[in-house]
Amino acid sequence: MTASPISPAPGSGNGVSPPTVAVILPIFNEARHLEKNLSDLLAGHPFDEVIVVDGGSTDASVEIVCKLMSADTTGSQPVPYLIQAPRGRARQMDAGAQVATSDALLFLHADTVPPADAIARIRDVVRRGHLWGRFDVRLSGRHFLFRVIERLMNWRSRVSGIATGDQGLFVRRDVYRMLGGFAPIALMEDIEFSTRLKWVGKPARLRGPVISSSRRWEERGITRTILLMWALRFLYWLGVSPERLARWYDRLP
Fold first, then answer.
1. The pTM is what?
2. Separation of first and last alpha carbons in the chain
3. What is the DSSP letter of 213?
4. For residue 53, what are the contacts with CB-CB under 8 A and spacing of at least 6?
5. Contact by Cβ (8 Å): 100, 173
6. Are the beta carbons of 129 and 103 closer than 8 angstroms?
7. CA angle centred on 138, ends 84 and 192, rounded to 5°
8. Judging by beta carbons within 10 Å of its beta carbon (0-12, 13-18, 19+), is residue 25 exposed, middle or buried?
9. 176 versus 166: which is more confidently predicted?
């Protein structure tokens, strides 16, 4: 009988320490919001590792992270660890995953805020044997359409088993490495990786929710952004390359 390539859940045995959790934060020119968001993340969540991966920012993002790295703390909160990687969310997240040593990896957008008990809940589902999962999402904007959008996002994810980046995807580190991590593609890396994660098990759904910024919807228009996201996913499903989709996306005003 061939042994399973997936080891027992970390922290699942008696007397074993709870699984450790690293958060991986890809950034690119996030200076406008980064100091507050990262400070809140460090102060409010007992992560075992906080790995910030810069993709070549030209604003003050790196300086902000360095400032927080050198801040005088009581030792009760983690100190962020900064690395550089080629620009691209997939490449940046993979670079962070490669240096992480924790049992579980949580991938967050720089403008996404996890719930206060996020670490405890991730530890709990990992200890109970889940290999990966995601949170429900709530958008930060007050417009009533955002309530409709977030409900549809959560319903779609629940039905399809696919998690998108703004939902706080997390995965056991050994499973991440077994599957080869995020594919180095320009767009849709979260959907592509979720599809492969479904090979090893269903995602744990944590109702959370994480709070994701609605700024892209507000800047480009709510209806226009919805249609754009649907169009990009449909074209990806038809086989259009992520690189071509990314070029189209970047040219939009």
1. 0.91
2. 57
3. -
4. 24, 25, 26, 27, 82, 83, 84, 85, 92, 93, 95, 96
5. yes
6. no
7. 50
8. buried
9. 176
